[in-house]
Amino acid sequence: MQKEVTFAGFGGQGIMSIGQFVAYTGMEEGSEVVWLPSYGPEMRGGTAYCTVVVSDRPIGSPIIQNPQYAVVMNRPSFDKFEPTIKPGGLIVINSSLIDVKSRRTDIDQLGVPANEIAIKHGLPRSANIAMLGAFVGRSGIIKSNNLKKFIEKKFGSRREVLESNMKILEEGLGIAENSQ
Amino acid sequence: MAKKLMKGNEAIGEAAIQAGVRNYFCYPITPQSEVAEYLAKRMPEVGGMFLQGESELAVGNMIFGAAATGERVFTTSSSPGISLMQEAISYIAGAQLPAVFANIVRGGPGLGGILPAQSDYFQSVKGGGHGDYKMLVLAPSTVQEAVDLMMIAFDLADKYTNPVMIIGDGMIGQMMEPVEFKKPPPMALPPKKWAANGCKGRDPVIIRSLFLDPLRLEQNNRELFVKYRRMQAEEVRFERYNVEKGNKVLIVAYGTTARICKTVIADFKARGINVGLLRPISLYPFPMAAVAEAAEGVKAVLSVEMSMGQMVEDVERSVLGRAPVGFFGRVGGVVPTPEEITVEIEKLL
Amino acid sequence: MERTAEKVVFTRPEAMKNAVTHYCPGCTHGVIHRIVAEVIDELGIRDKTVGVGPVGCSVLIYNYMNVDFLEAAHGRAPAFATGIKRVRPDLIAFTYQGDGDLASIGMGEIVHAANRGEKFTTIFVNNAIYGMTGGQMAPTTMPGQVTTTCPLGRNTKDTGEPIRMAELLSALKTSAFITRVSVHSPRHIVETKKAILRAFRYQIDKVCYSLVEVLSICPTNWGLTTKESAKWLEETMIPYYPLGDKKTPEHSQR
Q1: How many distinct helices (H) and strands (E) make up chain A?
Q2: Domains and CATH numbers, chain C
Q3: Which CATH code for domain B4-183+209-234?
Q4: Inter-chain contact B196–C68, Cβ cutoff 8 Å?
Q5: Does the beta carbon of C82 lie under 8 angstroms from any beta carbon of chain B?
Q6: Cα–Cα 20 to 30 A to C209, which of B98, B278, B305, C90?
Q7: Percent residues over pLDDT 90 in chain A
Q8: Residue A179's pLDDT is what?
Q9: Which of A80, A76, A88, A69 minimizes the C-alpha distance to A136?
Q10: Sorting pLDDT into bands at 50, 70 and 90, what band is C3?
Q11: Closest chain B residue to the Cα of C90, Cα to Cα
Q12: How many CB atoms lie within 10 A of CB A2?
């Protein structure tokens, strides 16, 4: 089974990082993984995005036109990627910055007030972690326990940062569960 | 060593370090600047030498000077930068020095774009610089393979006292995949008696590509081609993927394009249609015999490239009429989709 | 016969091969080659020296010098020498370049090598003309000087003024030894040797980049006799290309 996700937002929202977190955790779980960024002038100011593929067999094309999942953190990313999602897929929307919902009936959608959650826990730059939690909780692309282990390793050296990030992650995971 | 998730560009730099190489010259260019950025940090950690030159023109020639001392050395660049290095590559090939170049190819001609392309096939395989010479050209299709090829590239350069080029498109440089650094088995290499490192206890050596006597130059060129024939005998590398009797179509593709074709082949297989892929890993020497053999009995051969049709000429040269050879390419940084390739194959069924 | 009185007073330096010259009559490349060889001998560095030759008349310098040698692409000798010194700082490297090679096609490489303070030595032979290709205009060709590509004399309105390389390189902030000498008379040849010796010493002591610009004659392409050439150099070139140290590591702060 191959799972594909596009993470998108504007530069500085931590899009590339949460894509890498999924890829790392997938690798630790023994899956084949690829992380592919958009690069060059695209990165300057406009939408930044990356694609992550997690699979149980060697990954062919790393370029995914129609992913099962999209995680979008700003409006231009919603406009660009919402139409590309495969039927039966999922879109996770940063409802703090995106004031529309998908009108598609063939995909699942999940709104996450990511910026509010991050600000509440004192780490306004960690809105991406709330998105990550909600996405992983809903999609099951990787196990949330393994993701937590990875986050612990990643932020382990700064206790306060780690604790706040864990709270943000939990809240994201909670949104996924409660809306089920 | 455990697997690490690494960007292709960084993995290429680390592979050279793991292969014991401590000398790197560079000039920034997208989409390979991460190699330089990575090694600017990494080389000092291992006591190595890192130098950002003033241009690719200069860097190519710094590589000549460094290689001439017998030290292992490499550089990385992308298409327009590699064009500027063609002068040095021609001289290095003519003077028979070992050096490794990695080209993370972007779309051209001219300044072109910065997105993945395979339009430097002719440049790397058919010459690029002036004169009769060849490089050993190796094309990875995964980050792991980029690492593996990088780690043997220095041995191969020493084995043939010849430039070796690793050619990957922007995708190989930019994407992250799990990698392992496995030391390749040691290669038996000749001593570097030719090195210009001070004539202590011996006669001075001269390292040059200048031979004003036509017969002497002709002899030098013949020597080069004896070497190239040895490469053809010993260094052909390729992957056969789903190549078997009953293939309706044979795809020939390398690098990222080959990965995309693998996705296509899996989809056809699910539909009960058998398509094979011959993936050249060495672009020079080109796996002519393997392509010919795989083309036996198929309805058609399709060369899929991110170019306007470059490798297809070598595919035709290999297939030699055994089957009609078609071509599908996207260029300018546009990467062919599995859907597009599927349509092309369906036309041939 | 009293043979014991005989004493060798002049011999070929060890750093020089026993080769027949290919240079034109009156050419001063041979003199400069010999000075470099004598300096290498005197400093005892022959077995760790690597020379880098140019493209130009002295392209075949490796036939004369009895040290390891690389033959560079046109203008790229400083990049070659950078490569050598960066990976083998223990070796002694020098480039030997003419005015077309260094001041025209190789302008980028020489400026950046000097600016990085690469620890090698450049012998820059300025004879105000392209020799090997048959007497074309060089960046150092004098105003009004006739060459095959400025048959009416160099018109500085179209081609700019001759480039004073020693002064140009001295303008860089990086520490260096940069000097200009000449080989048109025995007295000047002695001075040239002193300068080249000093340049190599700075390299051996890992002090700085060093460049010795040597004003040189080209009777063949100038269309003058050797004697006339020496006079022309003295009267035309030296006033425009003044001799002397342009920059020393002791006085490099600007």
Answers
A1: 6, 6
A2: 21-247 (3.40.50.970)
A3: 3.40.50.970
A4: yes
A5: yes
A6: B98
A7: 82
A8: 78
A9: A69
A10: low
A11: B197
A12: 16
The answer to whether the CB atoms of B196 and C50 lie below 8 A apart is: yes
Q: Across the interface, do A36 and B171 touch by the CB < 8 Å criterion?
A: yes
Q: CB B337 to CB A63 under 8 A? A: yes
Contact by Cβ (8 Å): B98, B158: yes
Tens-place pLDDT, residues C146-182: 999 999 999 999 999 999 999 999 999 999 999 999 9
ipTM of the complex: 0.92
Q: Do C91 and B69 touch (CB under 8 A)?
A: yes
Give the one of B3, B175, B264 whose C-beta lies nearest to A34's C-beta: B175
Cα separation of the two ends of chain B: 46
3-state SS, residue C177: strand
B62 CB within 8 Å of a chain C CB: yes
Whether residue B251 contacts residue B107, with contact meaning beta carbons closer than 8 Å, is answered with: no
Tens of pLDDT, residue by residue over B106-144, are 999 999 999 999 999 999 999 899 999 999 999 999 999
Residue C4 has pLDDT above 80, yes or no: no
Put simply, whether A114 touches B (Cβ < 8 Å) is no
Distance (Å) from the alpha carbon of A33 to chain B's nearest alpha carbon: 6
**Mean pLDDT (chain A, rounded):** 93
Q: Are strands A47-55 and A69-72 parallel, antiparallel or unpaired?
A: unpaired
Q: How far is Cα B163 from Cα B157, in angstroms, rounded to an integer?
A: 6
CA angle A75, A77, A79 (to 5 degrees): 70
Quick check: C67 and B61 CB within 8 A?
no
CATH for B238-348 is 3.40.50.920
CB contact under 8 A, B176 and A40: no
Residue A75, class by beta-carbon neighbours within 10 Å (0-12 exposed, 13-18 middle, 19+ buried)? middle
Instruction: Give the pLDDT band of residue B206 (cuts 50, 70, 90).
Output: very high
B58/C68 touch (CB, cutoff 8 Å), yes or no:
no
Confirm or reject contact between C87 and chain B (CB < 8 A).
Answer: yes
Amino acid at C76: R
d(CA A162, CA A158): 6
Predicted pLDDT at C245: 98
Are chains C and A in contact at 3+ CB pairs closer than 8 Å? no
Strands C121-126 and C92-98: parallel
Chains linked to B by 3 or more Cβ pairs within 8 Å: A, C
φ and ψ at B147, to 5 degrees?
Answer: -65, -50
Is residue A180 over pLDDT 70?
Answer: no
Instruction: Report, as an integer, the average pLDDT of C7-13.
Output: 91
Residues spanned by CATH 3.40.50.970 within chain B? 4-183+209-234
- Please give the CATH architecture assigned to the domain spanning A2-178: 3-Layer(aba) Sandwich (3.40)
C2 confidence band (pLDDT: 50, 70, 90)? low
Q: How large is the average pLDDT for residues B300-318?
A: 98
Per residue in B223-246, pLDDT (tens digit) is 999 999 999 999 999 999 999 999
Residue numbers of B between 20 and 59 with CB closer than 8 Å to C:
23, 25, 49, 51, 53-55, 57-59
